[in-house]
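$ fold --in a.seq
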Amino acid sequence: SPHAVCGKDADCDGKFIDSTEQCDDGNKNNGDGCDANCKTEPPKVLTGMVTGSPTQVVGTISGVPGIKIKIIKIGICGDSDATSGPNQFQASGGGINFTWEAGQSGQGSTHVLSPTPNKGGSARGFSYKDVSYTADVGQGKTISFTFHNDYDALYCQDTDTQGTNYNDSGTVSSVRPWVLYAYEL
């Protein structure tokens, strides 16, 4: 958290925020929530297309020494509409462990999202939920695909809330977990 001090700390590495800084995490590294110019970095997205069997790691959010990771929003895109069996994902590590699903509910997930919307033909869009989970300082998270019931030859084709377009057409059937997170002091 910010500390008020007398004098200047214009070097952006003293962990004290002065009038020229938005943040100061004590280093000049980019990618840890506070860039080399002491500007707050925007949230990041972890996502990955899944086409095979569950019980696989989709990706990891790397831990940074002295920094917390906060998950802000979760989503699912693709083959998880109202007629599809549920697809479930899990975020674990750093003192958190929760699951989310979309499709026909039934897995007892921590969060049940609305079925993925129909975007025409076999294309399906994103379903989201705002959340607030913070990992222990310096600890990363693993995002895993944990369960699926069936595949209906649907795929993700949508633009996410951050403006990134996804088009997983050409796959037989796919589902895409989506996690919005930020690094925090």
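$ fold --in b.seq
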Amino acid sequence: MGPFIKDNNRTQKMMNHLLIALTPIILFAFLKNGLLPYKKGYTNIYGMIYPLIFILVPTISTFLFEIIFGLITRKKIKDSYSTISGLFLGLILPLNTPLPIVILGALISSIIEKIIFRVSGKNILNPALVGRLFIITIFAATITSNGGYLNPHEINTITTSTPLTNASLVDGLGTYETLVKPYGRLLNIFIGNVPGAVGETSVLLCLLAFIYLTYFKVIKWKIPVTYILTVFAITYVIGGSNDLGIWYPLFQIFTGGLMFGAVFMATDPVTSPTTPIGQILYGIFLGILTVIFRYLTPFPEATMVSILIMNMLVMVLDNIGSIGRFNFKIALMPFIIAWVLIIGLGLGISMKYAKPEEPFEVEKRDEKIPESIHENQAEYTIEESILINE
């Protein structure tokens, strides 16, 4: 696992850039989940500012929990940037998660994961995702009964939940009418005007953040690019084999918080590889795991679980990357395995969801049918048509 960046000045600059990149996403979360429902008359003043409160609560909680932990254990916690983990936690949770549960998730995120696992720079797993996994696993029923991912406006105007949840309920792979139409157009999903976690619905803002953070060398661009391309390639094969257009793989990468996870969660400097080869393998296998979880398991949190699983393999990937830097043949086998999995998943899932062929109808001989039978058939057809119309 790569060492934590020791230059405090550079680390502070990175965090400043990260906050700048997150600011439009936070403002969009406020606009979509607070201001718009208020203007439409579906909530009050408190409901309007509630999205900001929701994001602020875990941000402050993680900071306070670290201070309390330091006082109890008499350990000095320096530059852990716990507030960033709390901020991310607030952005990736459903809006209707009760605040006491959010605070509990912040406790799990900051104490059990970030502090007990050797404090700053030594955590094995992404702290915000650990907190989300804890909350979603234990309190899913409570959150759902409270409104789930829907803001006050969506509760009154949308009859379904998030796009990916809706996709899991349709027969087969679904169609444009069943997957996209309930939310308007694919452009709506791209902009982020759909149900989802507080701050992870806007693909557009995630792409802008990716460009900004890559330009200032805050994140490792190889990870999100290979992650997104892998998911796109596999789902393109799946959709293309079933006569679905280019919209289908785009739908898959626009939903489920995949873009937010690729840009912000998978690129965490502490829990992701530092070697170029390790980063590419990390992104590819993230994409493979995400597709596996989405299509072959009933588990809804594909992006989150994929990142947490790959977090545990970072040391292995960096070892491969270090050796492969001087002897690429050593790193060749993981790439071969990855391509076999990509092709196998694409073709295998395509066959699983393939539409059965229409039964071949044998041409009947033109035989002379008695006139009485013709009359009965005509009567039956008329009656049948009346039943169908009813």
